[in-house]
From TrEMBL:
InterPro entries: GntR_C (IPR011711), TF_FadR/GntR_C (IPR008920), Tscrpt_reg_HTH_GntR (IPR000524), WH-like_DNA-bd_sf (IPR036388), WH_DNA-bd_sf (IPR036390). The keyword Transcription applies. This is FCD domain-containing protein. Residues 96-219 form the GntR C-terminal domain. Keywords: DNA-binding, Transcription, Transcription regulation. The lineage of its organism: Bacteria, Pseudomonadati, Pseudomonadota, Alphaproteobacteria, Hyphomicrobiales. It holds the Pfam family GntR. Residues 28-86 form the HTH gntR-type domain. One of its GO terms (molecular function) is DNA-binding transcription factor activity. It comes from the Bacteria.
Protein backbone atom coordinates (compact mmCIF):
# COMPACT_ATOMS: atom_id res chain seq x y z
CA UNK A 1 0.00 0.00 0.00
CA UNK A 2 1.97 2.97 -1.32
CA UNK A 3 2.29 5.98 0.94
CA UNK A 4 1.59 4.18 4.23
CA UNK A 5 4.15 3.99 7.00
CA UNK A 6 5.45 0.60 8.15
CA UNK A 7 3.59 0.85 11.52
CA UNK A 8 0.34 1.62 9.67
CA UNK A 9 0.90 -1.31 7.28
CA UNK A 10 1.52 -3.62 10.25
CA UNK A 11 -1.65 -2.36 11.92
CA UNK A 12 -3.64 -3.00 8.73
CA UNK A 13 -2.36 -6.57 8.61
CA UNK A 14 -3.14 -7.23 12.26
CA UNK A 15 -6.67 -5.82 12.32
CA UNK A 16 -9.43 -8.24 11.27
CA UNK A 17 -11.69 -7.15 8.40
CA UNK A 18 -14.92 -5.40 9.27
CA UNK A 19 -17.86 -7.80 9.75
CA UNK A 20 -19.28 -8.82 6.39
CA UNK A 21 -16.47 -7.17 4.41
CA UNK A 22 -14.55 -10.36 3.63
CA UNK A 23 -17.62 -12.33 2.52
CA UNK A 24 -18.84 -9.43 0.39
CA UNK A 25 -15.47 -9.12 -1.31
CA UNK A 26 -15.51 -12.87 -1.95
CA UNK A 27 -18.95 -12.53 -3.53
CA UNK A 28 -17.75 -9.69 -5.75
CA UNK A 29 -14.60 -11.60 -6.69
CA UNK A 30 -16.67 -14.63 -7.66
CA UNK A 31 -18.89 -12.42 -9.85
CA UNK A 32 -15.80 -10.98 -11.56
CA UNK A 33 -14.41 -14.49 -12.11
CA UNK A 34 -17.69 -15.53 -13.70
CA UNK A 35 -17.60 -12.47 -15.98
CA UNK A 36 -14.04 -13.29 -17.05
CA UNK A 37 -14.68 -17.01 -17.58
CA UNK A 38 -17.73 -16.34 -19.76
CA UNK A 39 -16.10 -13.53 -21.75
CA UNK A 40 -18.18 -10.65 -20.45
CA UNK A 41 -15.00 -8.63 -19.96
CA UNK A 42 -14.34 -7.65 -23.57
CA UNK A 43 -10.61 -7.34 -24.36
CA UNK A 44 -9.68 -3.78 -25.29
CA UNK A 45 -12.66 -2.21 -23.52
CA UNK A 46 -11.98 -0.55 -20.16
CA UNK A 47 -14.59 -0.30 -17.42
CA UNK A 48 -14.83 1.74 -14.22
CA UNK A 49 -15.03 0.74 -10.58
CA UNK A 50 -18.23 2.75 -10.27
CA UNK A 51 -19.78 0.96 -13.24
CA UNK A 52 -18.88 -2.45 -11.81
CA UNK A 53 -20.20 -1.47 -8.38
CA UNK A 54 -23.50 -0.31 -9.88
CA UNK A 55 -23.92 -3.52 -11.87
CA UNK A 56 -23.16 -5.67 -8.82
CA UNK A 57 -25.30 -3.43 -6.56
CA UNK A 58 -22.53 -2.93 -3.99
CA UNK A 59 -20.36 -0.04 -2.85
CA UNK A 60 -17.07 0.63 -4.68
CA UNK A 61 -14.91 -0.57 -1.75
CA UNK A 62 -15.38 -4.37 -2.10
CA UNK A 63 -15.11 -4.01 -5.89
CA UNK A 64 -11.80 -2.17 -5.50
CA UNK A 65 -10.49 -4.89 -3.17
CA UNK A 66 -11.60 -7.70 -5.50
CA UNK A 67 -10.13 -5.99 -8.58
CA UNK A 68 -6.79 -5.53 -6.80
CA UNK A 69 -6.72 -9.22 -5.92
CA UNK A 70 -7.47 -10.20 -9.51
CA UNK A 71 -4.92 -7.74 -10.86
CA UNK A 72 -2.31 -9.44 -8.67
CA UNK A 73 -3.13 -12.66 -10.53
CA UNK A 74 -2.87 -10.95 -13.95
CA UNK A 75 -6.54 -11.55 -14.76
CA UNK A 76 -7.25 -7.80 -14.78
CA UNK A 77 -5.12 -4.68 -14.88
CA UNK A 78 -5.71 -1.25 -13.38
CA UNK A 79 -4.72 1.53 -15.75
CA UNK A 80 -3.14 4.84 -14.75
CA UNK A 81 -6.52 6.58 -15.07
CA UNK A 82 -8.08 4.05 -12.68
CA UNK A 83 -10.09 2.21 -15.32
CA UNK A 84 -9.97 -1.58 -15.44
CA UNK A 85 -9.43 -3.92 -18.36
CA UNK A 86 -8.21 -7.33 -19.41
CA UNK A 87 -4.41 -7.32 -19.95
CA UNK A 88 -3.26 -7.34 -23.57
CA UNK A 89 -2.65 -10.78 -25.08
CA UNK A 90 0.68 -10.87 -26.90
CA UNK A 91 2.06 -13.85 -28.86
CA UNK A 92 4.69 -14.47 -26.19
CA UNK A 93 2.13 -14.34 -23.38
CA UNK A 94 -0.17 -16.72 -25.25
CA UNK A 95 2.74 -19.12 -25.79
CA UNK A 96 3.47 -19.08 -22.04
CA UNK A 97 -0.17 -19.75 -21.19
CA UNK A 98 -0.30 -22.69 -23.60
CA UNK A 99 2.92 -24.11 -22.17
CA UNK A 100 1.68 -23.72 -18.60
CA UNK A 101 -1.68 -25.32 -19.39
CA UNK A 102 -0.01 -28.30 -21.06
CA UNK A 103 2.27 -28.76 -18.06
CA UNK A 104 -0.35 -28.41 -15.33
CA UNK A 105 -3.75 -29.57 -16.57
CA UNK A 106 -2.81 -33.03 -17.90
CA UNK A 107 -0.93 -33.57 -14.63
CA UNK A 108 -4.05 -32.72 -12.62
CA UNK A 109 -6.18 -34.96 -14.84
CA UNK A 110 -3.84 -37.91 -14.40
CA UNK A 111 -3.76 -37.40 -10.63
CA UNK A 112 -7.57 -37.19 -10.57
CA UNK A 113 -8.21 -40.44 -12.46
CA UNK A 114 -8.07 -42.73 -9.44
CA UNK A 115 -10.58 -40.56 -7.55
CA UNK A 116 -13.15 -40.39 -10.37
CA UNK A 117 -15.77 -43.09 -10.84
CA UNK A 118 -18.94 -44.01 -12.77
CA UNK A 119 -20.99 -41.28 -11.09
CA UNK A 120 -18.45 -38.66 -12.15
CA UNK A 121 -18.43 -40.03 -15.70
CA UNK A 122 -22.22 -39.67 -15.77
CA UNK A 123 -21.99 -36.08 -14.54
CA UNK A 124 -19.35 -35.29 -17.16
CA UNK A 125 -21.51 -36.84 -19.88
CA UNK A 126 -24.50 -34.76 -18.79
CA UNK A 127 -22.42 -31.57 -18.90
CA UNK A 128 -21.05 -32.54 -22.30
CA UNK A 129 -24.58 -33.04 -23.67
CA UNK A 130 -25.41 -29.49 -22.57
CA UNK A 131 -22.16 -28.28 -24.14
CA UNK A 132 -23.17 -29.85 -27.45
CA UNK A 133 -26.57 -28.15 -27.23
CA UNK A 134 -24.96 -24.77 -26.54
CA UNK A 135 -22.64 -25.20 -29.52
CA UNK A 136 -25.55 -26.13 -31.78
CA UNK A 137 -27.38 -23.02 -30.60
CA UNK A 138 -24.38 -20.72 -30.98
CA UNK A 139 -24.51 -19.82 -27.27
CA UNK A 140 -20.86 -19.02 -26.54
CA UNK A 141 -21.41 -17.77 -22.98
CA UNK A 142 -23.19 -20.95 -21.88
CA UNK A 143 -20.58 -23.05 -23.67
CA UNK A 144 -17.76 -21.31 -21.80
CA UNK A 145 -19.45 -21.75 -18.43
CA UNK A 146 -20.11 -25.45 -19.05
CA UNK A 147 -16.66 -26.10 -20.51
CA UNK A 148 -15.13 -24.69 -17.32
CA UNK A 149 -17.44 -26.91 -15.24
CA UNK A 150 -16.43 -29.98 -17.25
CA UNK A 151 -12.69 -29.46 -16.86
CA UNK A 152 -12.77 -28.45 -13.22
CA UNK A 153 -14.96 -31.38 -12.20
CA UNK A 154 -11.96 -33.45 -13.28
CA UNK A 155 -9.25 -31.19 -11.88
CA UNK A 156 -10.79 -30.76 -8.43
CA UNK A 157 -10.80 -34.53 -7.97
CA UNK A 158 -7.00 -34.42 -7.89
CA UNK A 159 -7.20 -32.67 -4.51
CA UNK A 160 -4.26 -30.38 -5.27
CA UNK A 161 -4.08 -27.20 -3.24
CA UNK A 162 -1.16 -25.91 -5.32
CA UNK A 163 -1.85 -26.78 -8.97
CA UNK A 164 -5.59 -26.06 -8.99
CA UNK A 165 -5.31 -22.32 -8.16
CA UNK A 166 -2.58 -21.96 -10.79
CA UNK A 167 -4.81 -23.51 -13.45
CA UNK A 168 -7.75 -21.35 -12.37
CA UNK A 169 -5.53 -18.28 -12.80
CA UNK A 170 -4.60 -19.36 -16.33
CA UNK A 171 -8.25 -19.81 -17.31
CA UNK A 172 -9.08 -16.32 -16.05
CA UNK A 173 -6.32 -14.92 -18.25
CA UNK A 174 -7.24 -16.56 -21.57
CA UNK A 175 -11.04 -16.93 -21.33
CA UNK A 176 -11.96 -13.38 -22.46
CA UNK A 177 -9.93 -13.88 -25.62
CA UNK A 178 -11.63 -17.20 -26.36
CA UNK A 179 -14.97 -15.36 -26.31
CA UNK A 180 -13.55 -12.88 -28.83
CA UNK A 181 -12.53 -15.75 -31.10
CA UNK A 182 -15.95 -17.42 -30.83
CA UNK A 183 -17.51 -14.11 -31.82
CA UNK A 184 -15.39 -14.13 -34.96
CA UNK A 185 -15.37 -17.74 -36.12
CA UNK A 186 -18.56 -19.01 -34.46
CA UNK A 187 -19.02 -21.99 -32.17
CA UNK A 188 -19.26 -24.41 -35.12
CA UNK A 189 -15.45 -24.30 -35.36
CA UNK A 190 -14.99 -25.77 -31.89
CA UNK A 191 -13.57 -29.27 -31.58
CA UNK A 192 -13.07 -30.90 -28.19
CA UNK A 193 -11.92 -34.22 -26.78
CA UNK A 194 -14.52 -34.51 -24.04
CA UNK A 195 -15.87 -37.87 -25.22
CA UNK A 196 -12.37 -39.36 -24.96
CA UNK A 197 -11.99 -37.87 -21.47
CA UNK A 198 -15.32 -39.37 -20.36
CA UNK A 199 -14.34 -42.81 -21.65
CA UNK A 200 -11.01 -42.54 -19.84
CA UNK A 201 -12.81 -41.68 -16.59
CA UNK A 202 -15.12 -44.68 -17.03
CA UNK A 203 -12.10 -46.92 -17.59
CA UNK A 204 -10.08 -45.23 -14.84
CA UNK A 205 -7.32 -44.94 -17.42
CA UNK A 206 -5.06 -42.18 -16.10
CA UNK A 207 -2.82 -42.07 -19.16
CA UNK A 208 -5.78 -41.81 -21.55
CA UNK A 209 -7.35 -39.06 -19.44
CA UNK A 210 -4.08 -37.16 -19.45
CA UNK A 211 -3.85 -37.39 -23.25
CA UNK A 212 -7.50 -36.41 -23.80
CA UNK A 213 -7.05 -33.28 -21.71
CA UNK A 214 -3.79 -32.40 -23.47
CA UNK A 215 -5.42 -32.84 -26.89
CA UNK A 216 -8.37 -30.70 -25.80
CA UNK A 217 -6.03 -27.91 -24.71
CA UNK A 218 -4.13 -28.01 -27.99
CA UNK A 219 -7.34 -27.71 -30.02
CA UNK A 220 -8.61 -24.76 -28.00
CA UNK A 221 -5.32 -22.91 -27.94
CA UNK A 222 -4.76 -23.49 -31.67
CA UNK A 223 -8.13 -21.87 -32.32
CA UNK A 224 -7.17 -18.94 -30.09
CA UNK A 225 -3.84 -18.54 -31.86
CA UNK A 226 -5.60 -18.59 -35.25
CA UNK A 227 -8.37 -16.21 -34.24
CA UNK A 228 -6.33 -13.43 -32.65
CA UNK A 229 -3.52 -12.41 -35.04
CA UNK A 230 -5.26 -9.23 -36.20
CA UNK A 231 -6.35 -8.31 -32.64
CA UNK A 232 -8.96 -5.67 -33.17
CA UNK A 233 -10.35 -6.90 -29.90
CA UNK A 234 -13.51 -4.86 -29.57
CA UNK A 235 -17.13 -5.94 -29.36
CA UNK A 236 -17.25 -9.70 -29.40
CA UNK A 237 -20.32 -9.83 -27.20
CA UNK A 238 -22.02 -8.28 -24.18
CA UNK A 239 -19.71 -6.60 -21.69
CA UNK A 240 -19.78 -5.77 -18.03
CA UNK A 241 -20.84 -2.21 -17.22
CA UNK A 242 -18.56 0.61 -18.25
Amino acid sequence: MAGQSRPQQAKDLQEPPAPGRHSLRDTVEEALREALLTGRFVPGRAVTLRGLAQELKVSPMPVREAVRAMAAGHALEIRANGRIQVPTMTPSRLAEIVKARLLLEPELAQAAASSLGPRDAARLAAIDDRIDASLDGGDAETYMRLNHSFHFLIYRAAGSQVLLPLVESLWLQFAPFMRTVYGRVGTFALVDHHKEAIEAVRARDAAALREAVAADIRCGMDLLDTGLPDTGLADAGPSVAE
